[in-house]
Amino acid sequence: MSRHRFVRGLDLDDVVERDDTDDGMTPEQQEQMATSMPIAKAFLKDIRPPISDDAIAQSLWHYWFDVDKAVTWLRKDWEKKGQPIPIELLPCPGGPRQRPHRPSHSVTTSAAPDSAMKNLSINTTSSQSSSSTHETEVTPPAQESSKPMSKLALLAQKRRETAQTSSSPSFQSAPAVNQPLTSRPEAPSPKPLSKLAQKMAAARASKTQPGTPASDTTEHRSAGIVSTMMRDVDHASHDELYPAPGSTSNPIMAPSAFFNILTKSTPASAPFPQFTYHNHIPTVFDEDDLIRRIHAAFSDAESPDDIVLRALSCTSLLPVVSQVLTFSFAKASSPATPSTPKSVSQPGKPRSQPGSLIKSATQPGTPRSVPKPKASSSGNRTPTTPGPSGLSTARQDLEGLHLGENADQADLDREREKFKEKTVVSVKREDLIAKVKREEAESGKQNMSLIVVGHVDAGKSTLMGRLLYDIGELSEKEKTANERGSKRVGKSSFAFAWGLDALGDERDRGVTIDIATTHFSTPHRNITLLDAPGHRDFIPAMISGAAQADVALLVVDGSPGEFEAGFERGGQTREHAWLVRSLGVKEIVVGVNKMDLVDWSQDRYDEIVDSLKPFLVSAGFTASKTVFLPLAAMEGTNVLVNEDPLLKAWYDGPTLIDILDKAEVPTRPYESPLRIPVSNVFKGQTAIASGVAVSGRLCSGVVQVGDRLRAIPGDEVGSVRTIEVDDESAPYATAGQNVTLYLAGIDPIHLAIGTVLCPPSQPVSLVSKFTAQILVFDLQSPIISGTPVELFHHSVNLPATISKLISISEKGQVTRKNPRVLQKGTTATVELTFRPTGGSSKVPTLALETAAENKEMGRVLIRRGGETIAAGVVMEILA
Amino acid sequence: MKLINKHVEKDGSGYVTLRPEDDEDMWHVYNLIAEGDLVRALAVRRVQTVSNTGSSDSYRVRVNLTLSVTKTTFSPAASSSTTAQGEKKEPTASLQISGRVVNENEFVRLGAFHTLDLEPNRDFRLEKAHGWDSVALERVEEAVKEGRGAEIGAIVCGEGTAAICLLSEHMTTIRQRIEVSVPRKRKGGTSGHDKAMENFYSAVYQAVLRLIPYQTLKAIVIASPGFTRESLYDYIFQQATLTSNKPLLASRSKWIKVHSNTPHVHSLVEAMRAPEVAKMLQGAKFAREGVGLDKFHKMLANDELRAWYGPEHVALAVERGAVGTLLISDDLFRSSDPVTRNKYVDMVEAVRARGGESLIFSSMHESGQQLNLLTGIAAILTYPLDVEMVEQEEREEKERLAREQGEIEKENADGEGDNNDDHGNQGNA
Questions:
Q1: What ranges does the record give for the region Disordered, renumbered to this chain (chain A) (predicted)?
Q2: What interface predicted TM-score (ipTM) does this complex get?
Q3: Which CATH superfamily includes the segment(s) B286-388?
Q4: Which helix (H) or strand (E) holds A57?
Q5: DSSP H helices in B251-386
Q6: Contact with chain B for residue A836, Cβ under 8 A
Q7: Fold of B2-51+58-144
Q8: pLDDT of A620-651, one tens digit each?
Q9: What is B154-282's CATH superfamily?
Q10: Which of residues 527-556 of A touch B (CB under 8 A)?
């Protein structure tokens, strides 16, 4: 007869009714049972607590009264109890026959294919019911707790068993309470046991905790919670429950289930479902409730946690938690203090770290305040705690448990976000500007660009090489290499200049050809140094550099005849001074170089100063802001220090570095839209990053990593991958800084020297015709309408025509309209048009803005036939 | 250009038959043909016939057509397929002439429009609508001059940019522009710069081989600011040596390195003025133009009253016989309005008549383009004249004339009245 059919035919009520009476058995079976039962009981006698007869009978029935098999299974089952038993293991672990539960089972399954869930519940209920009686006798906490506690008790029971079997099989009935209290010789006791002990202790601690108004009812409930929790906790890795030695003070990131229990103050506020919620997502919680509970629990607690908290609040990770915790730990004292938090740790202390008793003994003060869920602790470990690897594994563990299933997905996302944010901090533009301003005010260190100008061979590069060497930016090794190299080609006097003149041509010819950009810092300034070429052919490069500068250092040659050569017509001293002034440099430092060649003659120095001063004033520099100083670049005198007795005799003013340290920095237009006129485009690798890179100075605005920038001219948009400021990677850069941006998503063919990078929403206008107010310099032939010129704007120069002379003005008043010619020294408004470059009819365009919109983007220089004939500002854009 | 036939009467009527041979001839022809002129040349005409049954048939015939010109289009060096090294290239400039047919034949009706492509080495006959003036005749003369003009090549370059040009007497053609983006010097490695420069030099070298007929040119000029010209020169001959390019190595003496202030094409003017180039050119026309323009600028700087520009002002100066050198762009002679053209022709003739010099700039040269920017006409005066004073005098003169005119008219009116009176008187008498 098929038992399936038999079972199917059963009336459930009937079955339940008959359950106790074992009526389902045939007389022979009953007889078999009667004979095998005592045998089995004898076998299982040693098992504590004794297995109920029912269970034995059940398994016997299941194994067709094969006593041996039944006993083995029962033993195994006991060991496993407390964990959900998989359905296939439940009635027949690889059993010989497939059979539905007998009616003898406490809850019967009427149909053969039970759902896993149902089986699970069957299992738990049965185990509870079967074990509760024993548990109440054995474990004191269980004695107090009523039914819901039984599962905890069950667990405890199971743990104890495993502990017994592993440590000493004969050690049978040591009550759980006694275990931790007895000083245990087997210090490294198996973890499962200690874990249990810890839990138990925690449970008891919560009970005895004076600060917590824990009522019996709450205790009841919490006990029940513990039972549900246990399962989760079991899954969790050990290290999470056992904080690493020395890090027992892991910050409480979020209330764990235990935490909830411990701090449970208002039963009403935490209904049962909420527990599971907390339990699953440690970082998600009811903030107010938490504050209240933490406050209650740790009203006078002192914990090392607050270090972590402080760190936490600094990093502003998990802002809510930090807020909560800072509040609750407001009164917390230093972590080193030996006084232990009375509330929690004392009762639990001896048991707190059973696995590492010795260690815990050496740290009597470590409060085992609250067991922390690892996910929360991972977020804000102190430097002493295990590193991020532990963190991430813990996180993975957590995720592996699918604890987040019930949780608010958004919160999870936010949590993940926090880990990412460490690398890229994207801030709103306004916030960034505010931050930059604040930082600048705090540090007192300002960014400044310095351009070194002067006639060719005045010693600009050498002076800068010397400065960099003295300040330590140029290493001894490089210096000796340069010395050797320059000696080999018979130019040993260029040793220092070689520090900046890196191009082959520059070294061969002993002339700077292009701007060299480097940086150094003084106590109050971060200085970007631009070493300009002095040769008249390379003035375009010099203009490109001067357009990026705030302060100029004019180097003049003090040796006999040389100063005059540089200062007379055709010398670059004048032109450079005009150029830097018209490009917005207001402050100029004049270094009279090579003074050693005239034996530090004060007369010579005064002579030079006297002839330069009126000129500089006429060029538009304020006399008070113009500083002169004698120098000797090769010797390094008066660069960093003034040690030459000959000079000391009559000069006691500041050295070059002193002056630079005090140089005035103009205010930066942070708020204006971003403008970066590109001065260099390259594709390459540096220590920071590789790929398409552009260099340039931020004329205005701020840029941060991740920003999207449009390259004008063109319609291409790229995003900022990395920002390099002074050879270091930076999250953002601000107006006035010289930066290298590594761009993504844009082909280098769309970028050229002269491209302007700007926000896609606020592009620069492309101009082919505009009016400008110009100041005419010294020139050989006057400007007439139609004069072909080259127009310089930042790093670009384009052929243009002064297509119309609109008016001449003096002191802001228009004195003459439609003049025929412009002679030197006049201020005039003219119309400028770009010329089609031979053959092609396409009129070139340039990214320009009026000076009213953006000062630095509105400055132009006009040159013709190798001399600068005028400087101007863009007034109006015509086309 | 070859002059095949010339039949010009004293009064300027008549025709000239010419055979253009190269690009520059095309430019000359373009400057000769004005609106309204009659051009007779071989044309290819598509003829369409419709039969009685309505089926249409079209075929091409080569036929000589005479057009009354309405429009001319010139494009210099449109495209080049010449690859031969050092050989004289085929003309690449094209000239299209549109107009109405004035002589009817069996294929083309009178007044039908036709556009013909003037081809090199094919004769055409030109008859000026308003007669042959001195400037036009001079142009013909110039165009047919044997062995005229120095042809030189020029490379104007800077770091990363180069323009390869060919200059002839009346034209500058930019054969190729090369632009290589060169990363600038940076701290920590200049390899990017060096590599890009190497690329740049090799690109220029390839272009030189393809585009510069260095065997036939008189000179090849490399102009640049800084040291680029030296480096480029070295590179070219290093490569020539490596590839044992004998013709190129043999041309070494023709290569001249000249300083220029910018890498832009307009620096060519500057380069052409350089003494070492000027010597080579031996008074070639475009060299004279450059010098003339330079003189004008210098005069403007030294004595503003002796350097005038702008059509009205120059016309005044010409009127007063003050012009020593007249600088005028050929653009002005291409005016479609015969009156305007005549005005300029008269000015040129007037200056020459007084022993002055008239330089007609080719607007295909950089110097001519710069002159165009200065309104296309300028003059260096033999004695200083204040423009404003002259203008004042002119105004007064005009007023005086107007007054006189008014007086005359008044007198006339009075006279008439008088006459009437007389009549009356006579009648009375």
A1: 85-220, 331-394
A2: 0.79
A3: Ribosomal protein L30/S12 (3.30.1330.30)
A4: helix A53-62
A5: 267-273, 275-281, 285-302, 311-319, 338-353, 366-373
A6: no
A7: SH3 type barrels. (2.30.30)
A8: 898 888 899 998 988 888 888 888 888 888 88
A9: eRF1 domain 2 (3.30.420.60)
A10: 535, 537-538, 541
